[in-house]
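Issue 218. Parser rejects a valid record. Input:
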Amino acid sequence: MIFPQLSIFPLTVQFEDVDAHGVVHHPNYLKYLERARSYGLRKCGYSLEKLISSGSVLAISEIQANFLRPALLEEELFVISQVIDIGKTTIKVQQAITLHLPQNDELNIAEDKHLSLPETIFMAKIRLVCVDFKSTKAKSIPQDLKQAIKSFNQPLVTNSPQNIDI
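Output the parser choked on:
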């Protein structure tokens, strides 16, 4: 089940993020994605603190990433996040870093669950696994977290800006 609602996290490339050539150092893209996922979780009405207090954490078990163009110092970027599947113990998310805030008519969610956006400079598909905080073994995703994600993810309506959340 694809959840077409998007979470959009704006950011500006800082001096600390770049190398001597003014290009974002490659691990920082993953930091941007992490910040955007945490932001999206809060926008769903669920906090990392609540997840941890339940004895759970979400750990990355798989990343597929494509670097399409370097991000540069002081560029304004948008990290677009979309949940594409929720299983018993896993959540799959696709994320894209773009150079401008996409409009509804620019959003293209293909049948293969691939998010296509103009001016995308980085794309990733990430699998998160819910893990018991103490034992570090996989466990079921808390029902209230699943419900928060499902409630937040209402279908996009063409040219309806209230469905794009920043």
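Fixed in the parser; the record now loads. Confidence is low (pLDDT under 50) at residues 154-166.
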